Amino acid sequence: MAEPDHSILPPPSPEHRRIAAGQFDRANQVIATGNHDYGIRLLLSCCKFDPANLIYRQALRRTQKLKYRNNMRGSRLAWLTTIWTRGKIKKAKSDREYLMVLELGEQVLMRNPWDVGVQMDMAEAAETLGLLDLAIWMLEQARQKAPQDLHVNRALARLYERRGNFAQAIALWELVKKAHPHDPEAMTKAKDLAANETIVRGQYEAAVGTTPAPTKREARSESDTHKPVRQREARKQTAAPEHSTNEAPARETTPAEERVAREAAPLLARLHADPTNPNPYLQLAAHYRKANPWEQARTVLQQGLAPTGNSFEISTELADLEIEPFRQNLLLTEEKLRSDEEDPELRKIRIRLLKEINTRELELYRLKSDRYPADMTYRFELGVRLLRAGQVDEAIKELQATRSDPRHQWRALLWLGHCFKTRNNWRLARRNFEEALHLLPLTEDAVRKDVLFQLASGSAETGDLQHAVDVAHELANLDFAYREIGRLLDEWQQRLEQAKATEPNR
After folding, report:
1. What's 4's DSSP letter?
2. Do 485 and 372 have their domain in common?
3. 185 and 89 belong to one structural domain
4. Domain check: are 97 and 11 in the same one?
5. For residue 112, what is the DSSP state?
6. Is 306 helix (H, G, I), strand (E, B) or coil?
């Protein structure tokens, strides 16, 4: 597979995003009434308008599986009715029409959402288009049907490694090595990735356990829309554990786990009383997130999707929760870097994780700002992430819209300063930095130092040495060691004096 760093697809136009968002809302409404076929058609349209949007495809796949009651095979004659489309997929691949592969693949998955081969073709097309998140998700879906498939596990392990999720990558390479003990790639990869022990410590079992094939009992339970989620959860909580002769005895719960379960009980009661209301699911998931059982929070949100008609709030919270492992890996990486700042491998890992987190958060805040355009918080967060992604002009548009909101004013001005500095427009950059400095709260000492440094260094770079020296004196008075400002101040002062000395001779 190709390995582009960025999507080569042009982003959808604002009009297309607006239409897709409207159809997504309508799809959720009709799916909640049980009209799966119409909801699926609307969701397919959303995916055509915005092919890279993972939330649309996740909703589409959930609805398709619900339609077939999670039977793990789709329609009875799926293999026969999709033969012609499969041939078109192979031709599109050979012609390098990768967007067409995604569209044709969805037509096959309409008949069988668990088709492993088609999902692997779609994953390859998505990766070639630079849609790494989509490629990974496609392979994760394939693993639900074929968790031991060597081709799926190998391809997914490679993508996990590219994304910086080394725990999952190691787990899958171990599965490949277990099936083929002498596989050279699996042996090498397992050793190389294990060297990043700080990143992946203690996460192997969780990685393998996130994508098992559901049992028949689980499949029936997931498709039973007539029973409230709370009733099923209550049975899990209160039923005595059943053990076969081959099962290990249940692990004793810790006091912390007991406290989490005790505090969750009122929220579970609210969920049971009104299973179609998204708020109890969100509150229960927030409770679990605070206590750190991420999988419990994820399970609650996934269970809430069907009863609430694919609630937008639950969908976006689930998307945010899926970013959390990368944030945790980033914290571990930065902790390791503090003791070994020059480690080139750790620095590469940090950059990849930062990029991955920003890409996912950018898409999430774009969805939220499209949905709630009057909410300046979402537009501010979107603007910051657009700047980090190098989409400077779009970032300026969002940040200028938020600077009139008193809650975000000085922060928006600060980031606008960075935007204009990136565009090499120092005049506008300086103006926004100075306005941000004027509005800074007294408690923001660290930000004050950074803004002063930006003003001083930017003025020096543009030849305004007098202003650079004046601002540098103010910063040095606050913190003489800040980013070597003492040395820079001496250097700028010397250059300024030399410039003044040569002025009479001009």
Report:
1. -
2. yes
3. no
4. yes
5. -
6. coil
Which residue, among 145, 148, 138, 193, has the nearest Cα to 169 in the 3D structure?
Answer: 193
**Final residue of a domain: which of 202, 221, 240?**
221
Q: CA-to-CA distance for 386 and 276, rounded, in angstroms?
A: 35
User: How far, in Å, CA of 47 to CA of 138, rounded?
Assistant: 14
* 365 closest CA partner among 349, 331, 389, 330: 389
User: pLDDT for 367-419, tens place per residue?
Assistant: 899 888 899 999 999 999 999 999 999 999 999 999 999 999 999 999 999 99
DSSP-derived letter for residue 226 is T
The answer to whether residues 12 and 61 belong to one domain is yes
- Of the residues 221, 244, 266, the one at which a domain ends: 221
Query: Quick check: is 195 in a domain?
Result: yes
Is 87:100 a contact under the CB 8 Å cutoff? Answer: no
Q: Which of 419, 427, 411, 417 is nearest to 395 (CA)?
A: 419
Alpha carbon 315 to chain centroid, angstroms:
12
| Alpha-carbon gap, residue 261 to 257, rounded angstroms | 6
Q: Give the DSSP H or E segment for 233.
A: helix 229-238
Q: How confident is the model at residue 467 (pLDDT cuts 50, 70, 90)?
A: very high
- What are 161-178's pLDDT values in tens digits? 887 777 788 889 889 988
Range of the structural domain that residue 441 is part of = 360-505
- Are residues 501 and 367 both part of a single domain? yes
Rounded Cα distance between 194 and 148, Å, is: 21
Total domains in the chain come to 3
Gap between the Cα atoms of 440 and 451, Å rounded: 10
CATH number at residue 415: 1.25.40.10
Query: pTM of the entire structure?
Result: 0.62
Q: Please, what sign has the CA dihedral across residues 275, 276, 279, 285?
A: positive
